[in-house]
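=== Structure Prediction Worksheet ===
Name of assembly: unnamed complex
Input type: mixed (protein and possibly other molecules)
Chain count: two
Listed entries:
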Amino acid sequence: MKNETTLSAKIIPASIIIIAGFIIILLRLWQLQIVQGSEYRKTAESNRLRVIGIPAPRGIIYDRNGLPLVKDTPFFIASVIPAEISNKHLPLLAEILDMPAEEVYKKITESRHNPDIPIRLKEPLTFEEISFLEARRSDVPGLIIEVDLGRKYLYGPTASHLIGYLGKLTPDQAANPENHDVPPMAFIGQWGVEKLFDKRLRGIAGKKVYEVDALGREIRLFQEQQPIEGKDLTLSIDISLQQEVEKAFEGKAGAFVALKPKTGEILGLVSSPSFDPNKFTHGITYEAWQALMQDRKFPMLNRTIQSTYPPGSIFKLITAVAALEEGVINEETTVNCSGSIKYGNRKFRCWKRGGHGRVSIHRALVESCDVFFYEIGKRLGIDTMYTYASKFGLGSKTGFPFGNEKEGLIPNTAWKIETKKTKWFLGETFINAIGQGYVSITPIQAAFMTSIFANGGTSFNPLILMEDDPKKINRIDLSPQTIRIVSDSLKGVVHEKRGTGKAARSDMMTIAGKTGTAQVVSIRKESKDLPEHIRDHAWFIAYAPVEKPEIALAVFVEHGGHGGSAAAPIAKKAIESYLLRKDHEKKQ
Amino acid sequence: MLRINRRLWRNFDWITLLIVILISVIGILTIYSTTRQPYGAPQAPFYLKQFLWLGIGLAGLIFIVSFDYIWLSRFSIPLYVAGLALLIIVMLIGKTGMGAQRWISLGPVSFQPSEFFKLIFIVMLAHSLSISQDLIGLKSFLRISFFIVVLPFLLILKQPDLGTALVLLALFFLIMLARGIQRKALIVILSVSIVSLPFLGSIVWSGLKEYQKNRVIAFVDADVDPSGIGYHIKQSKIAIGSGELIGKGFLKGTQGPFRFLPEKHTDFIFAAFAEEWGFLGSALLLSLYFIFILRGLDTSRKAKDDFGKILALGITFMFSLYFFINIGMTLGIMPVVGIPMPFMSYGGTALLSNFIAAGILINIRTRRFSLFY
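=== Predicted Assembly ===
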């Protein structure tokens, strides 16, 4: 049993080592807790890390010519760190911030669950406020002054529906893992391009971590993480064109969309009235928001893509193309316009009371004769018109990158049976042929359709970034004959003596256009004699120069009256502004 | 299966059982306290999970006590093979967590095979060392190291779990020493070890990850960069020191909830405890461990056979190593090695394997009298 004893004999030295180990540990504990205990207690009480965010500069948005549309400007915020402030200091805090005590108390108690994140109490601070607060900061541990970058929209309300604005994270957004790197107090894009490209623009915030003492003084920089700047964006819009058009829209409600026909780039996008996104920079006040939402002219509505209107006479282009392509008429076919046409016991009038006399397609378009189109609409039938309207992108989304685009409506017999539970009436075909009745489109669809005419059949997806490659959608097969007839007629609308779009005539280039006056209510009265909200809507679509189109556009003036007088001048201004500047640049 | 005969009942090691339950309950309370969220945000249910694992651990303990530990010796080789297989499986399909591939996922729970392997390793060692009664010669030393130690050591090192791998190695040497090595062999082993130590050291050092090197540097001089690499030690010392004589009181600690103390519910749980219970509480807790360990040594002395002696000694050594390394680390007198505190630190597999280990100790002590009839 020799081994028994050797094994058991080892127990004694092992026990001795263990006992020695315990004694060492007890001595060390004694040293830490008893000898140095009070020192460590103090350190523990003042043991605070303070995390101060460094905002990431947001990407700059440029227009197509490289002009900055926004900039990031620093501003100062009075914040408190809930973990560092005790309730007894709240009255004093409210006093030096000059805020109601209940408000301060509420804001802080609401955020006690996230005690390390500074709560913003007052922003932006003026320089007087900053120096005053700095002086009193030591009286209120936990009060800090933060810096953030505010978005300044250099052109104010111009292009606000496109650019959008920033806002605080909504609770849903805060819960979204995509936003995990957004600091809780930061603003993100909530509208427009700012929202659509937020991930790209926002960058990643950095932070500085300080060790602070019990009085809230920063003792030492503990850790620093530099922010990563957001990436810049270049929009396809021309801000000068945009400004010019918005000025022309002053006091009117309406929409304007201009495209570059060869690529689909959006050159201008106006929805009037607009709003000033600078109001959102420090969080919009409740009153200001209410005012925006309750405004009867709906400034927050993006009329270019979200509103649908009867197209009026601009729809005659569709009717004309359909008739020519289907062989229902040819260039020489004439219809006699006596000022109205009778069908059954109903009388369908031409806008011109005396009538146009015997007109062919060219004059019918130039002078916008209604009777001619009633007649060829009747020959075509509603379903053929539907087919052609659809080919030109009406009644479906154009693919504008904002998600909230409306489709509008192009009726046909099937639709009528399905939704109205009745069959289609021929009288409805008549008015559909001149763009009245059920048919409704968005201004961007009107511009898109115009770009197809400018291209002789080819269409491109609307683009808003310069870097995007043009995306051809499809080509409508139109006979060269049809293209020639229509484009000659559209040129005539502007440049011929009796053209309805004379007001768009320019000495500097040839412009093709078409007026539209969409009835809101059917009263045979001059629009200017009616109260505004039931006056006709004015449309004008145009492209120029006719020989080699550089711009295609649609102007829409809500309750503006005649397309020729209310909308055509705006189109002329836009075309001249854009093309002359372009020529000028070319020469340089 | 559970043969409760009166004799066993009378000899049952209640004290060890009571101590491990007590320490575990203290652990759960500390986990609860230190994972509190200030200002009433919802708390992660670590303490509930640990409570559940305590139940599982008790079941495991009862199971292991229910049969004579001699069966462990009989099944040591299959057990060892199974343990190795698990280590290989974890290497192939294991889940990666916190930078190491240690976990095998079984539906909702995942467990760490290396936790159980330590026990299997001790059982295997005890089995092979109890076959012969002679002192260990150089040949058998090499044979045992080659067949039992090398492969698992490398597998665990590969995970990488440096802490466990080194504990395994240390355990091996301690058990061999205790079992008795021939004088001549001992001299050879020691001199080879001493000569190769610098080489081994540099190999280990170059194999260390950056954070592990930093821990060693921080241990040598904690003030090098108290916010960087010395941060763990500094915050742990602040937590412990600020407990002073009687502590801040249960649920009054701040170092954990305010997130100054890292790994507060796992590796640094002793610091969280010492902050709230002070020197007195800590001394009391230490004496529980002290009794547990000394009693383990005593169990080894009293065991009826060599297998039991070596097994009890091995398990006690294992607990001692874990205990001293962990507490030495929290007290700032040892480098930071990711080694949990037995029975206290959060971690299901560890708690279960600790209870099984304690069960083996209880088993050996309970069946310490040889039957002569």
